[in-house]
Task: structure prediction
Amino acid sequence: MLLRRGLDLWRGDALSGIESETVRRAAVALDEARGAALEDWAELELAAGHERDLIGPLTDLVERFPLRERLRGQLIRALAGAGRTGDALAEFRRVRSTLRGELGLEPGPALQELHRRVLAGEAAPPPRVVRPVRSLPRTVADFTGRTDLISRIAARAAAGGPAVIALDGMAGSGKTTLALHVAAELGERYPDAHLYIDLHGHSEREPLDPAGALLVLLRRLGIGADEVPADSDGRVHLWRAEMARRRALVILDNAASSGQVVDLLPASPGSLVLVTSRRRLLGLDGAHPESLPVLDEAEAVELLARIAGDRVFAEPGAAADLVGRCGGLPLAIRLAGARLAHRPRWQVADLVKRVGDAALPELAAEDRTVAGAFALSFGQLPQPAQRVFRLLGVHPGRLFDVPAVAALADLPAGEAGELLDDLVDVHLVEEPEPDVFRMHDLLHEYASALAAELPTGGRRAALGRLLDLELGAALATVPEPVRRPMMRELGVPGLPAATLVAAIAQPPARLERMRPYLGSLVAAAVDAGRPEYSWQLGRAAWRQLFGDGYNDDVRALFTTAGAIARRLGDELGQAISANYLGSVHFRRAQYDDALALLQESIRLRRRLGNPVALAYSLSNLVGIYSTTSRFAEATEVSLEALRLAETTGDAQAVSSHLDSRSLLMSRLGRHEEALILQRRRLMSMIDRADRSGAVYSLFHLILIRRRAGRISDRAAERAYRVVLRLSVRQRMGQVEAEAHSELGDVLSSLGRHAEAIDQVERGLETFDRLDDHRIYAQALNTLARARWAAGDRARAEADFGRALQMAQGASQPYEVARAHLGLGDCATDAETARAHWTAAAEIFTRLRVPERYEAAARLQEVDSQKDETGVNHCAI
Result:
């Protein structure tokens, strides 16, 4: 080994580039010394039995030093010793030809004697007898699943060459069990040796060093202790030489690192090596990595049944619950199954009850526990990674990213990312997609137990930093012109955790990803000693959640926040929670509930003396009154809201009321006033660079102009298509749905009935996606009118009937009247038509809207009809 190291330090010819004769003579002497050292090294390697490993290096050397007979002889001996007699004889012929051609000489006596011995079969050392070796531990009879993975391993093994499969996975994922099962399945392909060694990479013992592992493996091959070299390199050479003579299967179990394994890998074809580790062996060149996922539900239940018996199948629901609490982790399922197997009177549901919310204490059998397996992985982490893992137990969710971990641990994002990578490499954390991380449920439970050992102040501080980040990240999804007044409403002076928030590439996508865990964050605000976060976080996230139709999420967030605020007597939290909880009921056309919540918010905001917030709630009240056709009350409240907003000077509040009042005025036929208000709002949105507000305003301006007859249908079509493109680009689902419906109405007026029906149906689909029922009846009336114009009386009548029923249930008399008007148009007899038109006229007149004239004209026409033969009054 020392001689090889010395030779490796040599670079090129000695003293090259120097023309001095004296120096050249010295250089020749040095080159000769090097050649002699190379021959001595080769002789030692041959003596150690490393013939196969020498063939390549010696071939290169004889090309460089073609006249050195000792080197040529050593190459011939290496070829013969490797069983390549023909190549050895061919090499002798080559050296004889070279010596004759270059020097006119025959090979020396030593080479000629070697040639004779090769011909006589005496040059190679006597082959060691290869006896089959079987040293695998017992495998389990109840192995379940992993069929695709086993097929991939089998295909790799059949491809030729030394196949090395690196199986990594979290503690308890069944890596060793899988390796032993594969060995049993493929063992017949490897008749000479089946070897197993536990490298103790993750155990209470110190990891086995490579030299010690080689000693164990060589002894299991039947090599005597006196034949095993004392040095590590010698053992590597002997191991590879022995493996070259065998078709062998080797399991290197529980590896600590690539460095522990690399010298144990065979270099010749015909072998299969399965390496298992809790760590990803990134430095294992040439190995094919396979990470073991947890079992899916079907595989997990099957494994449970194989251990505990068929009673598992008698309780499918409980079985699914149990394997779900085990997180599909094979070790956890085995321990749960063992508990059931040894308690034949237990039902599966009994164990589910015992597991409850704390599974780890129940997942134990004698000295085998899931927590113990996790503890070994945790114990081998460096202290900074241990700290991060422990703090992840404070996080109330299972999904997180680098900024979240940086906030928890109070670290720079770069350092937090590096520590997360370390946890991923040892399978204590998963990375299901780039820069998105999660923890297995059982690992999170284990981390939570570790976090509970932290001082209360430390846990609260970590959770407070996380909530700062999440509030800042939610606020970052809101356009800047809207964000500033929102922060004033929340009492937040600046963007919390601004540095970490800046590291978030796409705040809307992140909020969508974190959405399932927002409820847990809101609930955790009290534990952090920061209850105001419960409603602040919901308010900051509301705009995106509501816009994307996540009504259930909004309701859950503000139900929790409102309960916390009431318990603590926080009237500001109560007012905000009531206001935004009311938005869900409003969207679902539950107007009585929405009205009660909004009135509660208004009452609290009047008492708190916050005129801007009060103006917003009053504007929302205008929306409820307008939608339920309570136009007189809407007008009165609208005036108060607009005056209040203008008094405060809050531009966002003013623009909100300009919009709601302009739509109200338009509905009442006061189009000039409506246009002035909406144009004023549009200019405000442009001045403030509020893109989404500008899209809303543009859409409403087109709608009002069309009602006023100030825009042609063709121009309206073009304008609505622009609004549609903008609304899709800016994720404004509500505008998108309404624009589809209004575009359908325009197309119907242009006689393009099929296109019109398609557009309105697309709008209805978007309403369904958003769970938005506010103007569903309006869209149904528009769809029915398009069908009527297309000549499809039957389907038009059905849609008008659906619109009537929905509008009556939602207390929307204006849409009730529209549905009656349409049903009258579709009626086949005068009396039915007259009844529907009369109902429509009465409602429109009571509401004092322009459509009362249209209904009156229908009645006047039917009264003047003298045809008594049952004329069809559906003008199609």
About this structure: The first strand starts at residue 133 and ends at 134. The CA atoms of residues 504 and 510 lie 8 Å apart. The longest helix spans residues 21-47.
